[in-house]
Structure formats: structure tokens, C-alpha cells
Amino acid sequence: MKKLIIAVGLNENVTREQNPNVALSPEEIAADVAACVEAGASVIHLHGRDPRTGAPRLNDPDIYLRIFRAIRRVADIPCYPTYLTIPMPERYRHVEALAQDPLCRLEIAPIIGGSVNIIKVDPATNKFVGRTLDDTVLLDPWSAIMHHMEFAKKHDLWVSHDIFEPGMVRNAITLWKMGHYHRPSLLKFFLAENHPFGFPPEPRYLEVFAGMIPKDMDCEWLFLPFGVNYQSALECWTWAIANGGHVRVGLGDNPGGPGYLPTNAERVREIASLARSMGREIATVADVRARFAPIKK
Known about the structure:
The chain has helices spanning about 25-40, 60-75, 95-100, 140-155, 165-175, 205-210, 230-240, 265-275, 285-290, and strands at about 5-10, 45, 80, 110, 115, 120, 125-130, 135-140, 160-165, 185-190, 220-225, 245-250. With about 300 residues, the chain is an alpha/beta fold. The protein has one domain (about 5-290): Aldolase class I (TIM Barrel). The longest helix is centred in the N-terminal third of the chain and has 14 residues, at about 25-40. The radius of gyration is 18 Å and the shape is globular. The chain starts with 5 loop residues before the first strand and ends in a 6-residue tail after the last helix.
């Protein structure tokens, strides 16, 4: 796809202390999404949050239904939630609720590309932070992946894969060779700075990820800075823009820091301006929907 897809990681688990602009309530999320669309975004990823406390509500059907219905009142853009790698059926219950509600118009199935150990290391102390050592695995075995893939086909959704490790690219290639995609897929390459999985956030490693994709595989890929400082992220965004990839920006991935606390729409405008300066047009929502339309047999 020649035009650049700008995806937004809207809120993740970012707190108001990290950035007061982060959206928490369904109404705030909807307004933020509308501003991102106006700025040039064409895909939105969001986390369910408690409207009062901001606590994660990552697989709560009620909160996601409220969020998506609020979004649909003000914006028309493909949106998708996260999910917890917990046992079925709790793992995907909110995704199922969204797919079954015609007001929500779910278009994308989130599917992690496999299992990975994920924990943060504090660079100042070189110690683990944020999780217990018994709670570090994002566990998506093949049984879960196949359930999600069948769910996507049943509800006519296109697939967005979280790719943390090279083996996850090989998993996606395996699914493609087996004929499990009925629409083109999106591979999101997570490159992390302070999480010791996969590749560091450098263009040379992004090139390795992109280079693994077979030339005839019907998919798109983007760079996602997972806990990466803005300058390192910018180098990889620039490489992705120059080499046919796409980008994800947003407070959920990079909330800013002292002296600069942007909004999501400002992040979108920044990357859109960079892309245009490099001669790359920005994909519209209509462009994205056309790209991920059902594959003609």
C-alpha cells in the first residue's frame, strides 16, 4: 500500500500523572478518536478503562460497548480493543460482544502472534519492575490463535497481529500458507527499549522483521514503539515511512515527558507532516477499508 496508514495507540494503561491528556471515559475516548481522525489517523487501538479511577478494564464487555457506541456517534474509523491472555471464554468475551452489536461495527480482530515473555527492566537500576516473575508470559498457544482466526472469519473481520518475536512472523506466514486469512492482515512489529524480548528499537532490526515477509503474502506491516523514547521511535518511524511500512503513534505507546505532554491528535499531525515531507501520502479511512477488503478467490 503506497499511502501511509497512521494507527493510534490511544490510551493503553497510561495514567493522568504521565499525561493529563490521556482519555479514560467513553466520552473522552470518543472525542479523542474524532480528533485523531481529523488529524489523519485511519486505525485506532484502545483499552477499556474505568471512567473514574482509570484502572484497566481490559476484557469488560460493558465498558467496551459503551466506548464503541460513543465513538460511533462522532467518528467512523476502524477501532479494536486489546485482550488478556487468560483462559477461554473470558479471554475474548468483550471482542465477541463488540462483534455481535451492530452499533459498534467492529472491523478488526486483535490476535497476538504467539507467546512471549514480557517484563520491564528499569534502566536506572537494572531490576525488573511492573510484574511478578510468575506473571510474565503473554500466552497465546495455537489453540487460542486458531479460535481467534475462526472468530475473525465468522464475523468477517480483518486480523491485526501483535508481533513481538521473529517466530511470530513465522506463525503468521504459516497461517497464510494454510489459507486462514480471508482478508489481508496487518503485522504490528513491537520493538521495545526496556523490555528484553524481540529486537531493540533500531531501523536495522525493523528491516529484519520486514524482510521476513514473503513478497506474495497479502499483508501490511507497521512499526510500534513499545515503551520507546521518542527519538528512537522517530528513527524507526522514518525508516518505516521510507520503506513501505506504516506507523503507530499515540500516548498509549509514548506519553511524552517533562516539558512536552502532547495530545494524540498532535502526535498524528507530527507523523503526517513527516510523511508528507518525505513524499508519502496519508491513507484515509476509506483507503484502509479498501486495502483490507475480502480477498477475491
